[in-house]
Design goal:
Length: 124
């Protein structure tokens, strides 16, 4: 199909640019801080991943699910604590403001291997 009209070409170009700008606007409205999302799965008796790498001053959302029982996620040094409940997604928003290695543990007794349920967050 050959397009002869100059006005029609301008209309098509304007529609394409407008669609791109609208898409960028909608994307900016749904994730205004451009947070990094990290999914963490808990199950007896570990977290996957059990080492979480973060960048200092970059916003992040930790999303938790569990495959079996109620768990806890506690990082005392970063003042982070949440319950992880079967069938639900728990979210923690944070902006790490200091570099270092911060251990985390399950703080809800989840069975005989509970004491092995730990990991670390490394902020660089």
């Amino acid at each position: 199909m050959k397009i002869k009209s100059g006005r029609f070409k301008i209309f098509i170009l304007a529609a394409a640019v407008g669609t791109g700008l609208f898409g960028a606007f909608v994307n900016a409205q749904t994730n205004p801080t451009n947070e990094q999302v990290i999914q963490i799965v808990a199950k007896k008796f570990n977290y996957a991943p059990n080492v979480i790498m973060l960048k200092k001053d970059r916003p992040v959302v930790l999303e938790f699910t569990t495959l079996d029982v109620v768990m806890g996620f506690n990082v005392p040094d970063l003042k982070i604590r949440t319950d992880i409940i079967p069938g639900k997604v728990s979210r923690v928003h944070l902006v790490p403001d200091k570099a270092g290695t911060f251990p985390f543990v399950c703080d809800i007794f989840c069975g005989s291997g509970h004491e092995d349920m730990s990991g670390k967050i490394i902020v660089t």
